[in-house]
Amino acid sequence: MQIHNSCGLCSVTLSDIQVVSGGDTILEHVNLQLHCGELTALIGKNGAGKTTLLKAILGERQYTGTIRYQDHHGDPIAKPKIGYVPQQMDFDRSAPVCVADFMAAARGKMPVWWKLKQKEKMEIHRILDEMNCAYLAERKLGALSGGELQRVLLALATNPVPDLLILDEPVSGVDMAGLDLFYKRVTQLRDRYHMAILLVSHDLSLIRRYADRVVLLDKTVAAQGDAEAVYQTPAFRSVFGYLEAEEAASCK
């Protein structure tokens, strides 16, 4: 497997991020920092503003405040590379499009109906092989399981290697074995490329196992730190309730 250089990012700093829509405050005074080589899990109940925060980072939602990207010398990165895996992808599952065709189109190389050249096929196989799923290249996109599709999307989001990888509940509906495999792949990417990863997830036990830092969002940052510390906070118990908090705290 080919080894790539690590990303050039050192940190992402979010300062006083606020999002207001129709008079409703969705996010207020969000301050946090993401570091290279760390997997940060963003947790919170529905409506806490998690997806809105991701969209602000992706430039898809207007906000006030600042988001700064810095390299290892403290210099700003004007155009950071951001990889993104959505919660779900809407597409016509009956369409006769194979994985290789989809990836070539997504990478901006050619239309999905265009016959791929051998060089492009080999490159796509290489990218998929990094996720141990090169065998999916010729399979129809609509025939993939939820876990297989997410591995394809993860392969696509990490080539080229991003400075920041954003994962928005990327394994929703995937079984426990698939969940564990996906988290292992993500932590391997973190270790191999030393990239910053921001993950939205409801899987509190897996977050405990794999995340370096946890940020509890409730329109603002209610708590942050390692999972052990965050799960013990009054804010966590207030957001998730006593029983769920006790269960999360006991899953080690």
Low-confidence stretches: 1-5
Q: Main beta sheet, described? A: 6 strands, mixed
How do the strands line up in the largest sheet? 5-6-7-3-8-9
Distance between the termini: 33 Å
Overall pLDDT level: 86
Q: Summarize the helix and strand pattern as letters.
A: EEEHEEHHHEHEHEEHHH
The number of helices is: 9
Rg: 19 Å
Q: Report the β-strand fraction as a percent range.
A: 15-25%
Give the strand tally: 9
Description of the molecule:
By secondary structure, this protein is α/β, with parallel strands linked by helices. The protein has helices spanning 50-57, 99-106, 118-129, 146-157, 176-193, 204-210, 227-230, 234-240, 242-250, and strands spanning 9-21, 24-35, 39-43, 64-71, 82-85, 164-168, 196-200, 213-217, 221-225. The strands form 2 sheets. Strands 5-6-7-3-8-9 form a 6-stranded mixed sheet, sandwiched between helices. It has a 3-stranded antiparallel sheet with strand order 2-1-4, covered by helices on one side. Helix 8 packs across helix 9. The protein is globular. The two termini are 33 Å apart. Mean pLDDT is 86; it is low at 1-5.
List the helices and strands and how they pair.
Layout: E1 9-21, E2 24-35, E3 39-43, H1 50-57, E4 64-71, E5 82-85, H2 99-106, H3 118-129, H4 146-157, E6 164-168, H5 176-193, E7 196-200, H6 204-210, E8 213-217, E9 221-225, H7 227-230, H8 234-240, H9 242-250
